[in-house]
Structure formats: structure tokens, C-alpha cells
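Q: Given only this backbone (244 positions), what sequence would you predict?
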């Protein structure tokens, strides 16, 4: 897992991966099988990551391409040469004692039972609009509100880290201002009650507050690969007086 500073991130649109007829048939077959296993999957538009590298001025350049969710199954197909890593945003939401908020993905999601920071896949902008750090910040604020009920405005989020996993997937992480732990749990409880009244289950069906990687052990289920290094980085940046 690689971690980079996100304050000098620049996004550049690229062409989507070119698939051979054989790869496209394999992708479509794998996607159809995934939908049969989980009918809630939706082949909507996504912005996939095609590259991440430093530029000559020490900044970070992320290239992305327009695709749909079915392109992500290419990563799991043996011999596929055109796999598209995912691009997502996440929010490091601390409580006022420095612990970070993590959530468990609900049973109806693509990764049931997995623990992660609030966030989600990035969608491409409409034609004529730009995908930049400001757009990612707005998307991160929306994900935080939809998944936890914490309605922090976009301009209250600070670009923090860029993560890159072993499969090439890239996440852009933002820091939110600290909130009281009770407030965070109350906001999620209110969100959950509203969703249940509508016959739905929130995307994050359970929340926990964790300080170190050791705090992940009691949580039942897997967690995303970036979570442990992010917790270590967060712990080093949080001072003993309760301020980052």
C-alpha cells in the first residue's frame, strides 16, 4: 500500500482501456455472473484510474477514464491485459478524542461486511465539466452525509492522502473536522431510522471508532487494505491535546 500527500494532486482525463473482442466477452460474462449472485449491482458510470505518478514539479498526477462498473471485473479475470483500477474518495472523520470513524458495508452492497472509511467510487462529470480536486471534495462530502448522516460541507474537508493498493486502485482521502463521538453516533442512528422507515438499509449498517490498527481486531469481518496504514499515519499526526 502506497501513501502520498494529496495537497498537490492534479487530475487528467485519459482514454478508456481498449479491449479485444475476447476480453469484452469475458468481461460481459463475468459481470452477468456477478449480477446473478448480487442483483443489486448496477452497471453505472464510473471514473476509473489509469495511472498515478509524480510530475517534474513534485506534484501528483492522476489520470482517469470514463467507464462503467463492469470494467472492474477485468481485474479478476486470468490473463486480462486491460484491467481498470478503481478510483474512490474517502473521508477520515475523527471524533474529538482522535479516534477515526469506520463503517461496515451492509449485506446488499458489493462488499458486504467489509469495514472502511466513509466514501465511494468516483463518478465521471457531465460532458463539459472538469473532474478536479474540488469535484472530489464535493463527492466526498456527499458520501459522508449519505453514509453516516454527518453533513459536513465540502469546504470543511481538507485533502489529506492518496492511497494506491496492490491492485492499482487509488483513493483520495479527505480529513473532516473533529466531532463529538456521541454526535456521530446520533447522526447515524437518525439516518438509519429514516432509511428503515423507507424500507431501506443504510450502506454502512454499523459504525465504530478506532484509534490504531489493533482496534480493528475486535471488528467482525474484513477491512480495506488502506485502513491500517491510514490509521498509523493518522495516529502520528494527532497530538495528545486532542488536535490534529
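A: Predicted residues:
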Amino acid at each position: 500500500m502506497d501513501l502520498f500527500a494529496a495537497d498537490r494532486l492534479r487530475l487528467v482525463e485519459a482514454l478508456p482501456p481498449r479491449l479485444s473482442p475476447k476480453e469484452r466477452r469475458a468481461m460481459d460474462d463475468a459481470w452477468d455472473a456477478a449480477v446473478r449472485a448480487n442483483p443489486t449491482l448496477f452497471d453505472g458510470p464510473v471514473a476509473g484510474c489509469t495511472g498515478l505518478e509524480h510530475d517534474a514539479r513534485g506534484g501528483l498526477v492522476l489520470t482517469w477514464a470514463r467507464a462503467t462498473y463492469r470494467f472492474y471485473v477485468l481485474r479478476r479475470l486470468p490473463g486480462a491485459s486491460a484491467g481498470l483500477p478503481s478510483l474512490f474518495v474517502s473521508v477520515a472523520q475523527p471524533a474529538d478524542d482522535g479516534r477515526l470513524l469506520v463503517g461496515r458495508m451492509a449485506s446488499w452492497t458489493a462488499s458486504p461486511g467489509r469495514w472502511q472509511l466513509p466514501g465511494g467510487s468516483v463518478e465521471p462529470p457531465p460532458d463539459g465539466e472538469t473532474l478536479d480536486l474540488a469535484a472530489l471534495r464535493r463527492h466526498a462530502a456527499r458520501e459522508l452525509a449519505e453514509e453516516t448522516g454527518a453533513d459536513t460541507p465540502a469546504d470543511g474537508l481538507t485533502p489529506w492522502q492518496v492511497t494506491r493498493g496492490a491492485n492499482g486502485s487509488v483513493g483520495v482521502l479527505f480529513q473532516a473536522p473533529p466531532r463529538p463521538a456521541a454526535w456521530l453516533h446520533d447522526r447515524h442512528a437518525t439516518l438509519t431510522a429514516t432509511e428503515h422507515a423507507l424500507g431501506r438499509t443504510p450502506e454502512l449498517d454499523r459504525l465504530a471508532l478506532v484509534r490504531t490498527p489493533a482496534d480493528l481486531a475486535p471488528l467482525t469481518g474484513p477491512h480495506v487494505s488502506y485502513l491500517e496504514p491510514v490509521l498509523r499515519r493518522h495516529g502520528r499526526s494527532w497530538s495528545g491535546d486532542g488536535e490534529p
